[in-house]
TrEMBL record:
Keywords associated with the record: Cell membrane, Membrane, Transmembrane, Transmembrane helix, Transport
GO cellular component, one term: plasma membrane
Lineage: Bacteria, Pseudomonadati, Pseudomonadota, Gammaproteobacteria, Alteromonadales
Family listed: Belongs to the major facilitator superfamily.
PROSITE patterns linked to this entry: MFS
Domain Major facilitator superfamily (MFS) profile: 11-394
Membrane protein topology class: Multi-pass membrane protein
Protein name: MFS transporter
Subcellular location field: Cell membrane
Transmembrane annotation, as ranges: 12-33, 45-66, 78-96, 102-123, 135-154, 166-188, 222-242, 254-271, 283-301, 307-330, 342-361, 367-390
């Protein structure tokens, strides 16, 4: 039994707003690299590791929230994590050195994990199958909008505000967003929780769902795809900022964050992805998306401002199409322990983000931007190989027709 249409709409927009709040907080540091480097006396390249640290703690916290939401329901863990996120933002106002900043960002990563860990399972619980793909596309689109907003906000704050002023503004925006989510999110929760289960501690029974999904070869391939694709996407955006601040470009602190507007092509792709999957099928769309990411990376080697912008527009379009298909397929394939299935996907996804920075760092240090592109293409070749394996085992079926995957 699904929720009424008004409640479904409130759920979609409530989780989408929560997503915007989460991704502003996650990615604001990516637009603040010059301010962080100056305020905490580290190099810009060293500052890029802050995103890796947060993504790392976020990745493993996703597994915890997936289990917690199966025990306590979807709504409570999500709202509590958002409330504590406001507290973490207040803590950032008072950090004095880089090690303290890393510690708070590690804590933030744990809190940021709740929404992505729970959202798709929440949708699956309350939405019709016909609405699920559209809701997932809107939610992923909100992810990209939150990412754009966070990075541009970070760039603006770097240009005009001190660290304390910037974190004060972020705290106010987060609090406003959390209040909006609280008002929008319906109280309805379909998770059935037995009294004994609610009181029991976490144990081996809670790990059963993770083992079930890790034993599914298709899901494991989807997890690897998410990790490899995101290793490339998010970290390319970090290193291109450093490249654009160097000769011959000499882009300014805020100007360099405008490259994140290329995410808008990904936002459009996210909203359209459900229709494209229905028309083309999953695997052909996977191949097309991966090729677009490869082509986009190669185009940036033209090393002009226009070539870099065009390349990142292509890469963003390809990546978000790819991620939308992956995310929806995982949610549809999991017939039980749904939150755990999506949490494993997102765990691998954010581990990819965390590992991608250190993986590409030596490429950047020795060969600059061309080295980053070479490292990216190495990872994307692995993406294409796994997609071909999926093609052989499944064929180009549409998830609209095959909800079990």
């Amino acid at each position: 039994m699904t929720a009424s249409r008004p409640l479904q709409l409130r759920l979609i927009w409530g989780l989408s707003l929560a997503s915007v709040v989460i991704y502003i907080n996650l990615y604001m540091v990516q637009g603040m690299l010059p301010l962080i480097a100056t305020s905490f006396s580290v190099s810009p390249a060293h500052a890029t590791l802050l995103l890796s640290v947060t993504s790392f703690s976020m990745a493993f916290a996703l597994l915890f929230y997936a289990t917690l939401s199966d025990k306590l329901g979807r709504r409570k863990p999500l709202l509590w994590s958002l409330a504590l996120l406001v507290v973490a933002d207040i803590m950032l106002i008072w950090v004095q050195d880089f090690s303290a900043l890393v510690a708070v960002r590690l804590f933030q990563g744990i809190l940021l994990a709740a929404v992505p860990a729970i959202a798709m399972a929440y949708f699956k619980d309350l939405l019709d199958t016909s609405v699920l793909l559209k809701a997932g596309a809107i939610y992923i689109g909100a992810n990209s909008l939150g990412g754009i907003a966070g990075r541009l906000l970070g760039g603006l704050m770097t240009e005009y505000l001190s660290w304390v002023e910037a974190m004060g503004l972020v705290t106010i925006l987060t609090l406003a967003g959390v209040v909006g989510v609280l008002m929008l999110l319906p109280r309805l929760d379909r998770v059935r929780i037995r009294r004994r289960q609610r009181k029991s501690a976490f144990g081996l029974a809670d790990l059963k769902g993770f083992g079930l999904h890790l034993g599914d070869a298709t899901l494991v391939k989807l997890y690897l795809l998410g990790a490899l694709a995101f290793m490339v996407m998010v970290n390319q955006f970090s290193y291109i900022q450093l490249h654009l601040m160097q000769a011959p470009f000499h882009w300014g602190k805020f100007q360099v964050t405008l490259i994140f507007l290329c995410y808008l092509s990904g936002t459009y792709a996210s909203f359209r992805s459900a229709k494209w999957v229905a028309r083309l099928g999953r695997q052909p769309l996977f191949i097309l998306s991966a090729v677009m990411m490869c082509v986009g990376s190669l185009v940036t080697l033209g090393d002009t401002s226009s070539a870099i912008v065009i390349g990142f527009l292509l890469s963003s379009f390809g990546f978000f199409t790819f991620h939308s298909v992956c995310n929806a397929w995982v949610a549809q394939r999991a017939q039980q322990h749904r939150a755990k299935a999506t949490a494993l996907y997102l765990c691998s996804y954010y581990l990819g983000a965390a590992l991608g920075g250190p993986f590409l760092l030596p490429f950047w240090q020795y060969w600059g931007w061309s080295g980053v592109v070479a490292g990216s293409l190495t990872l994307l070749s692995g993406v294409i190989f796994i997609v071909v394996m999926l093609q052989r085992s499944h064929g180009p079926r549409s998830p609209l027709l095959d909800a079990a995957g």
